[in-house]
Amino acid sequence: MNTTQSRPLSRPRSALTPFLCIVLFIFGMHQVQGAGNELFEIKTAAKSLKKSSVRVLSSSDPKTRAAIRKAKHVKNVAKRAYRKCPERPTKARRSVDLTGKFLGQYERKLSNIDSTDNVALAEFASDISQRVDDLLYSDEVCDTGETIIQAELNYDIDPAPFVNFARGWGDMEFGSHGTFADFVSGAAAPDHIHSNTYYGVVIKGTIKNPFGQQPNDQVSSAVALTSGSFWHVPANVIHTTACVEGENCLFYFHSRDNFDFDTDVTDNEPTPETSQEITLEEVRANLVPISPFAKMYTVWGDREMGAHGTFGEFIPGGASPAHIHSHSYHGVVISGIMVNPFSDETINDTQQLESGDYWFVPAGVEHVTACVSAEPCLFYFHAEGEFDFLAAE
Fold first, then answer.
1. Are 157 and 172 within 8 A, CB to CB?
2. Which strand (E) or helix (H) includes residue 199?
């Protein structure tokens, strides 16, 4: 599995050098919506390259061609990310240049795979990953926050008659991603498996997701997952996904690797020992207060130690103080109205986020999170590192 860990800040905000504090302040004044996630994507795509480099077989192998596409994708994303960096420091520019150089060499090696062994490819991929690490660490402040309103999403990824996909962040074809799905009311996917684990949260409608042998025969008796429910599909486990008749089902799902779909399944597939189905009622029953205004419930991983997926609930009018996190995170609103202003915004003048809206907070970027509706705000967020809270000065 492609695991990605965002590098934490080297020390708490209060101990940062005056120079870096000035850089962070200048960066905050340049925040723009829609410019985030690129550096996060670079790292996940680079690790996907590393994974694919040890298993390619020949220049005509589909995995080889996929690896070449990933190489081009990483190079283009790296260039776009650097162009959006307000300060463009020299170290970050060198990292971008060297990343492009290594990717070019990698692509040429893949094009002539018959005369190249996999060890050499793995070495190139390791160099790429190291350069990406250097880039992220040298200039994390260049990744900006992002907000995506559900009504503005383009559901233009059309893999089947029963579902359309819209890109939230990343790219479901290339690697790590967060994607929205609009599933047709009353429809069900054929029995199938995926090569990689994914996690899903229902935003609208009622999803059923039975596992085991011949899951389509079990849809009627499966657990009903309504808005605010969660499920986890392990790799290579037979299941189906169905939307109960009534209204289309909207859900958000994410994975550390690309999304595929294989209906050529047999009775020898593994049993779903680690699958999860957690209803909204169970989510609410397990929410634990962490402050006077917020409750949380972690449904996978460990938010105090590393990667995790967590539900949060804010009381009406509840707002955090200005703060930063050591790791980037992705959030999706389930119900209520939320805002997430960055350092140059206020609660009253920032974009309001309602059911199905998405936001991204990069590591080290000052922000506030608040619930501005008359009802509590329920949301789901996930990160590749532990969840900490460092108060801004």
1. yes
2. strand 198-204
- Looking at 255, 277, 299, the residue that finishes a domain is 277
Say if residue 328 is in the same domain as residue 354. Answer: yes
| pLDDT value of residue 333 | 98
Residue-averaged pLDDT of the chain:
78
CA gap 184, 167 in Å, rounded: 18
Say if residue 301's pLDDT is above 90: yes
Same domain for 214 and 319, yes or no, is no
Q: Is 387 helix (H, G, I), strand (E, B) or coil?
A: coil
Q: Looking at the predicted structure, is the pLDDT value of residue 51 above 50?
A: yes
Phi and psi (nearest 5°) for 55? Answer: -130, 0
Could you report the per-residue pLDDT of 363-389, keeping only the tens digit for each? 888 899 999 999 999 999 999 888 999
Identify whether residues 132 and 213 lie together within a single domain: no
User: Residues 110, 56: contact at Cβ < 8 Å?
Assistant: yes
Q: What is the SS3 string spanning 303-325?
A: CCCCCEEEEEEECCCCECCCEEC
- The residue behind tokens 């880039």 is 135
Helix (H/G/I), strand (E/B), else coil: 239: strand
Q: Which of 105, 121, 142 represents a domain boundary (last residue)?
A: 142
Residues 6+ apart with CB under 8 A from 72: 103, 107
Domain of 107 in residue numbering reads as 38-142
pTM, rounded to two decimals: 0.75
Could you tell me the CATH number of the domain that includes residue 248?
A: 2.60.120.10
- Measure Cα distances from 301 to 28, 31, 250, 298, 383 in Å: 31, 31, 24, 7, 10
Q: Does position 132 have pLDDT exceeding 90, yes or no?
A: no
Supply the Cα-derived Rg of the chain in whole angstroms: 21
**Intra-chain end-to-end CA distance of the chain, in Å:** 39
